[in-house]
Amino acid sequence: MSSESIWFLAPFRLPSDHAHSIQILNTCLALAGEGVRGTLFVKRNPDRPVRSIDEGLAAYGLRPHELLRIEWLPTHYNPLQGAVLRWKVFRCGDRPVFYIRHLRLAQTAKGRGLVLTELHKMEDDARAAVLASDGVVTITSALRDAVQKEFGGRAPVEVIPDAVDPSRFPPVQGCHPSRLVYTGQFHDWKGVDVLVRSLKLLPSLTALLIGGREGSDPFRDGLKALAMQEGVADRIEWTGYLPQAEIPKRLRGGDVGVVPTRAGNGQDVAASPLKLFEYMSAGLPIVASDLPSIRDVLRSGENGMLFKEGDPAALAAAVRQLTDDPARGAAVSARAREEAIARYSWQARAKHVLQFIRSIAR
Question: Which label site among 48, 84, 235, 294 has the fewest CB atoms less than 10 Å from its CB?
Fold first, then answer.
């Protein structure tokens, strides 16, 4: 059993629609599975109230672990929540490892225990956080290189990508006509407009778009208008937001998982989307934007197909390479699933985090 104690300073609303909450919870629970005593602070979500932490976890299809203590932060007022977190860090007496996702808390934790900061992009507060840290985790090698170029050897940097629970995303079954599948948010830099435009060049295919909330997501509304303009609206199913536990049920044999991320918003170096690993685990053939961050995981023609970022024609051509040759698509998706199990499980991520912590502690 591990003797480490880790405080996760990564407050988020429980439950939440956003992928970062899935990543944080699964990382914490996987570390608890490795014997780590963990403490995680979360906010109540006034838009989706739950009666208990256990009920909040159930929204993700997750169960509590005896070694992971999850505490509510008081009130919905962000400045007060921040003050409470800083107070708790000041009062902490057992010198745990502080695992930082809320970058402004790195300076607070400095000197009170080992400080690790996990970066997902080059944020405004990255410099102060890196200077206060004993180690830095990045989710891609391109982001690691950017951190090392910007901050030199201030702290060791380790690449630890995102992950998936292969048991929750088993191989899809069936042999239905192909459709394009996208799960996640619809911000401009997600590139879903590229997928929508590609349908005009793939007249025999449909699309399933999972995410967003009807009437409250202007990006989703804009994409619906684009689909009408392109004449493909009748070939797109919009599910709206689905709980994480429901998503594997909506995938099926014959689907092509699409990751059309644009290079903007730092995604050329920082993209490590959970959907990529979920598609891999589910055994979907994948087409994804050819970005340095994505190339950490996908090798075109081996475990996925890469296309020129932002180019609907290139996306359509990549899809055809998989759908016109089912044997190739099956081989590509089988290799991706093998790699998801062997390299990209939450358990593998937790072990990697622990190895990095121990190397710094030595």
Answer: 48
- Integer Cα distance of 25 and 28 in angstroms: 5
Specify whether 158 is located in the same domain as 59.
yes
What CATH number did the domain enclosing 150 receive? 3.40.50.2000
| Distance between CA atoms of residues 261 and 290, nearest Å | 9
Please state the pTM of the whole predicted model.
0.95
For the chain, where are the E strands, in sequence order? 5-9, 13-14, 37-44, 68-72, 97-100, 114-119, 135-138, 157-159, 179-183, 206-210, 236-240, 256-259, 286-289, 305-307
Q: What pLDDT was estimated at residue 1?
A: 35
Q: Please count the structural domains in the chain.
A: 2
Q: Are 129 and 117 in contact (CB under 8 A)?
A: yes
For 76-82, which contacts have Cβ atoms below 8 Å and span 24 or more sequence positions?
Answer: 76/43, 76/44, 76/46, 81/11, 81/43
Residue 292, preceding bond cis, omega within 30 degrees?
A: no
Is 174 within a domain? no
Give tens-digit pLDDT for 41-65. Answer: 999 999 899 999 999 999 999 999 9
Instruction: Give the number of other CB atoms < 10 A from CB of residue 1.
Output: 8
Identify the domain containing residue 64 by its residue range.
Answer: 5-163+345-361
Count CA within 13 A, CB hemisphere, residue 162: 24
Could you tell me the pLDDT band of residue 73, with boundaries at 50, 70 and 90? very high
3-state secondary structure of 242: coil
- CA 123 from chain centre, in angstroms, equals 17
Q: Are residues 147 and 184 in the same domain?
A: no
